[in-house]
Write a structure and sequence with these properties.
Helix Hairpins; about 25% helix; six-stranded mixed β-sheet; single chain; Elongation Factor Tu (Ef-tu), domain 3
């Protein structure tokens, strides 16, 4: 059966429309946008006053540390302090039973009274015999006898007075007082126990303010310091401490002792500095990092360490010039200063170096730079 003429025309019309649509889609191309310059972070090269420093490992030491001990035997009756509290010199800390020692004092006083009475009688007898001898009615032998007894009575009185002093001294030992100001540790013996000279330490008092820090210095470092003393006054050296959390202790210290002998095992000399410790931050036995800093500094250029790269030719940084283009700059570096490196040659103050985004740029490329302050 032959197709209807109208159906043929419809098929031709659809084919033409599809062909035109296909041609139109091929010709409509979207324009491609240019890629933006890569973003980088830059820091301006700045000058800073850097002071020569040397670091050591030190140990905090109390100026005074006193172990409290019983000097007489007896039962411990009282403890009159709070463990870990500050105490002042002369504060009463422990008491030992007094009864036995008070009785010894009373007995010594009685002995003195008896000795005084005996001496008084001997003095009277010597006076009487002396008068009889002078009148030629008494024997010299009798005078000699009573004079000897007078000397014996005087010696006995001196012995009784010494016994009293000893008894009073032992009685005073029943009150254990703080010989120095500081912080007292825990009590090692409880109240009610029998104590004496062999009982060991009852408690320990550690002074708090000021406090020492001792640290070893090698012979090489000591020689460097002594060579520099021709141009640098010793009092310009300041000692700082770095605590365990990385922060710097706010109070600087001063050197006050240099040991007279060298440790032959380590070839070091023990050095000590004194620090104020009003807030009790430093504790006896604590480990700290000691930084010896020269008071007079020098002006140098410094750049964050993350800006530096190293290849076969040495160290270099990427600089962004006034046209926002990247340049390679060879540099000569010095010592480390915190998060920065000192630049000896190759850069000038005010230039900008890339610190972040280094891996996505190349020399001569235009970049979009965002400046941050050093240390941010």
């Amino acid at each position: 059966m032959a197709p209807h003429p109208s159906q043929g025309r419809l098929v031709l019309s659809l084919g033409a429309a599809l062909a035109l649509a296909a041609c139109g889609n091929g010709n409509e191309r979207q324009p491609q946008a240019a890629a933006p310059p890569p973003a980088v972070t830059v820091v301006k090269v700045a000058t800073a006053d850097i002071k020569p420093t040397a670091s050591f490992t030190g140990r905090v030491e109390a100026v005074s540390k006193v172990d409290l001990r019983a000097r007489v035997d007896g039962f411990l009756e009282k403890r009159l302090f709070t463990e870990g509290a500050d105490v002042k010199e002369g504060d009463l800390l422990f008491t030992i039973e007094k009864g036995l020692y008070e009785a010894a004092v009373d007995q010594a006083k009685a002995g003195i009274a008896t000795a005084e009475a005996t001496l008084k009688l001997a003095d009277i007898e010597v006076g009487r015999q002396t008068e009889l001898v002078q009148r030629n009615v008494g024997a010299q032998a009798k005078l000699d006898e009573v004079t000897a007894k007078q000397g014996e009575a005087r010696g006995n009185l001196l012995a009784q007075r010494a016994t009293l002093e000893k008894a009073q001294l032992q009685l005073s030992y029943t009150d254990i007082k703080a010989p120095a100001a500081g912080r007292i540790g825990r009590a090692n013996i409880s109240v009610g126990n029998f104590v004496g000279p062999a009982s060991g330490t009852l408690a320990t008092i550690v002074s708090q303010d000021p406090i020492y820090v001792a640290f070893p210095v090698t012979q090489r470092e000591m020689l460097d310091v002594r060579k520099g003393q021709n141009t640098t006054a010793p009092d310009t050296y300041v000692i700082y401490l770095q605590l365990a959390d990385g922060s710097r202790y706010k109070n600087p210290g001063k050197l006050n002792f240099l040991d007279v002998t060298v440790n032959q095992g380590t070839d070091t000399v023990q050095v000590r500095a004194a620090f104020p410790n009003p807030d009790r931050i430093l504790v006896d036995g604590q480990l700290v990092n000691v930084v010896a800093e020269l008071g007079k500094g020098e002006s140098v250029l410094q750049v964050p360490q993350q800006a530096f790269q190293v290849d076969q030719s040495g160290a270099f940084v990427l600089v962004v010039d006034k046209d926002s283009k990247v340049q390679v700059r060879r540099v000569e570096t010095g010592r480390v200063s915190g998060p920065n490196l000192v630049v000896l040659k190759g850069l000038s103050a005010g230039e900008t170096v890339i610190t972040e985004g280094i891996q996505k740029v190349r020399p001569g490329q235009v970049v979009q730079a965002t400046e941050v302050k050093p240390g941010a």
